[in-house]
Specification:
single chain, 9-stranded mixed beta sheet, zinc ion binding, allantoinase activity, DHOase/Allantoinase_Hydrolase
C-alpha cells in the first residue's frame, strides 16, 4: 500500500510542476479523482469526481460514467486513482480558537491551519476569542484578517463576537463576511470578551431578527450554587481530581441556559446555534423549540435551531480521567459514560447537527495539575476525522456519517454555500481517507503549536492520506505539500482593502 501511495504522490508532483497549456496562473488542469469508495453525506459508491480548471467540482460520476469519459480519449484530463481509499469532502471545523494576534504563543494561523491540512480539514472557522483584540468590531476583524493573510494552509472564515453593547457593529461585520456571532452566558475566561447578561438578550435577538446570520451561544448559565473557586473549604480539598472540577459545572447549567435561549427562539426569526453540547438533556429542549419553529412555517435549515457536540464528549468519559491530567479540562466538562453513549445515540438518530473540535489550546504553563485553576480547553484540530471515525466505526456507523457531521453539517450551519459536499459547483476540497488504517498520536506528529492532548499515545482508527484544496494537493501522509494555499472567506474589499 505504501508503494502505491508513493507512486500516487510522484504522479501528483510531476503534474504540479507542469502548466496546462492555455490556462491562467491560478488555474489547474481538469482533473478526475477516482475511488472505489466515493462517500457523500448520504451514500457510498464506486466512481469519481471531475474537477474543472478553477478547482470547482464539475460533476460526480458513477463508475460507468467514468469509463465512458476515459474511453472518450480526452487527454486534457489528469486522472488520480485512489483505489480503495475513500474519497470524501474535506472536513469543515466550525469551532476553532486560533488566538492570533495577541495570544499567538497559544496558537497561530500557520500552525493551526497546517494541523488542519494534514488532518483532512480544508476549512476552519475561527472563534472571536481568545485573540487580542477579540473579533467584536469591524476594525478588530481587519486586524485579525491581516494577521492571517498569506499564512493559511486551508481556507479560514471568522465568527464575530456578541458582547454587551456592540449591536452597532453587527451590520458592518455581516457585510464583511463573518459567518455568525458567538456570545457567552457565563464568564468567558478572558476579560476582553465579557459575557451577555439576561438583560442583554432582548437587544441581541432584536439586532439579528430576520437576518441570515447565526447567533451561537456558549450555553452555561451561572447559578449562586455553583462553585468554581478554591477557598480552602472541603469542596476544594482535592482540586487535582477531575470529579472536583466536574461538580463545579453540573449539567443543570447547560439545561438552564438552553431553556432561557429557547424562550427567545419562539419570539424572533434568528438562526440559533448551541456550541459544544456536553449534557445530553440539552437536545430535547432544542428539539421542542425547533418543532414549534417549523410548525409556524419557518423555512431555515433545521428550522434555524441547531447544535453541535465535540470530539472530546464523543470520545472520552469522566470515569477515565486520571488525577492531575488537566489536558482533559474543558467547559462544559466531559461527562460520564452514560451521557457519552446518549450523545452517540443522538448522532445515529440525526438529532444533533454537526461535530466540531472546539480546539482551545494554551501554553503548558497554564495547565498544571489543579483542575480548578488550569486553563480549560482540549486541543484536537488535527485529529477530528480519525477521532470521530474511531468511535463511529466501533458502533457500526457508515463512512457517510463522517461526511454528514464533519463536512456538510458545519458548512450548512454557517452558510458556506460551496463547501462541505461533493456536489457540482462546490469547491473541490477533498480527502483520500483510509478507514482501515490506524496510527498512534505522539508529540512528533502533532502540527499545532502546543503539543498537549488528552489523546496522547492513543490508537486512532482511520488515516487521512491526501488532502486537496480546490483540487490542489496541500498535504499527504502527514506532511505538507507546498506553502500556504488557503484563502480568507471574507469580503476582502471591506476587510483588507481599507
Amino acid at each position: 500500500m505504501l508503494f502505491k501511495y508513493n507512486i500516487f504522490i510522484l504522479l501528483l508532483g510531476l503534474i504540479a510542476g507542469v502548466a496546462c497549456r492555455g490556462l491562467k496562473p491560478h488555474q489547474i488542469c481538469r482533473q478526475l479523482f477516482l475511488s472505489r469508495r466515493v462517500v457523500t453525506e448520504s451514500a457510498e459508491f464506486d466512481g469519481g469526481v471531475l474537477v474543472d480548471e478553477n478547482g470547482v467540482i464539475e460533476s460526480i460520476l458513477t463508475r460507468d460514467s467514468v469509463d465512458a469519459l476515459l474511453q472518450s480519449g480526452d487527454r486534457t484530463i489528469k486522472v488520480f486513482d485512489g483505489g480503495h481509499l475513500a474519497l470524501m469532502a474535506g472536513a469543515v471545523d466550525s469551532h476553532v480558537h486560533v488566538n492570533e494576534p495577541g495570544r499567538t504563543s497559544w496558537e497561530g494561523f500557520v500552525t493551526a491551519t497546517q494541523a488542519a491540512a494534514v488532518g483532512g480539514f480544508t476549512t476552519l472557522l475561527d472563534m472571536p476569542l481568545n485573540s487580542i483584540p477579540p473579533t467584536t468590531t469591524l476594525e478588530n476583524l481587519r486586524i485579525k484578517a491581516k494577521a492571517a493573510r498569506e499564512e493559511v494552509f486551508v481556507d479560514v472564515g471568522f465568527w464575530g463576537g456578541a458582547i454587551p453593547n456592540n449591536e452597532d457593529e453587527y451590520p458592518s461585520m455581516i457585510e464583511a463576511g463573518v459567518v455568525g456571532f458567538k456570545g457567552f452566558l457565563i464568564d468567558s475566561g478572558v476579560p476582553e470578551f465579557p459575557n451577555l447578561k439576561v438583560d442583554d438578550l432582548e437587544k441581541v435577538f432584536a439586532a439579528f431578527n430576520g437576518t441570515q446570520t447565526v447567533l451561537a451561544f456558549h450555553s452555561e448559565l451561572n447559578d449562586s450554587n455553583i462553585r468554581n473557586d478554591c477557598d480552602g473549604s472541603a469542596f476544594c480539598t482535592e482540586p487535582y481530581l477531575y470529579d472536583t472540577y466536574l461538580a463545579t459545572r453540573p449539567a443543570q447549567m447547560e439545561l438552564d441556559a438552553v431553556s432561557l435561549i429557547a424562550k427567545y427562539i419562539g419570539e424572533y426569526d434568528v438562526h440559533v446555534h448551541v456550541v459544544h453540547v456536553s449534557a445530553e438533556g440539552v437536545v430535547p429542549i432544542l428539539e421542542e423549540a425547533r418543532k414549534q419553529r417549523i410548525a409556524s412555517g419557518n423555512k431555515r435549515w433545521r428550522g434555524g435551531v441547531t447544535a453541535e457536540t465535540c470530539h472530546h464528549y464523543l470520545t472520552l468519559a469522566s470515569e477515565q480521567i486520571p488525577p492531575g491530567h488537566t489536558e482533559y479540562k474543558c467547559s462544559p466538562p466531559i461527562r460520564n459514560q452514560a451521557n457519552k453513549e446518549k450523545l452517540w445515540q443522538y448522532i445515529k438518530d440525526h438529532r444533533l447537527d454537526l461535530v466540531a473540535s472546539d480546539h482551545s489550546p494554551s501554553v503548558r504553563e497554564l495547565k498544571g495539575t489543579n483542575f480548578l485553576t488550569a486553563w480549560g480547553g482540549v486541543s484536537s484540530v488535527q485529529f477530528g476525522v480519525s477521532l470521530f471515525w474511531t468511535e463511529a466505526k466501533a458502533r457500526g456507523y457508515p463512512l457517510s456519517t463522517v461526511s454528514r457531521y464533519l463536512s456538510s453539517g458545519p458548512a450548512l450551519m454557517t452558510g458556506l454555500q460551496n463547501k462541505g459536499m461533493l456536489k457540482p459547483g462546490y469547491d473541490a476540497d477533498m480527502i483520500y481517507f483510509d478507514p482501515e488504517a490506524s496510527f498512534v498520536v505522539t508529540p512528533e506528529i502533532i502540527m499545532y503549536k502546543n503539543k498537549i492532548s488528552p489523546y496522547m499515545y492513543r490508537v486512532l482508527q482511520g488515516k487521512v492520506i491526501h488532502t486537496f484544496l480546490r483540487g490542489r494537493l496541500i498535504a499527504t501522509e502527514g506532511e505538507l505539500f507546498n506553502g500556504p494555499q488557503g484563502e480568507l472567506l471574507i469580503n476582502e474589499d471591506i476587510v483588507l482593502n481599507n
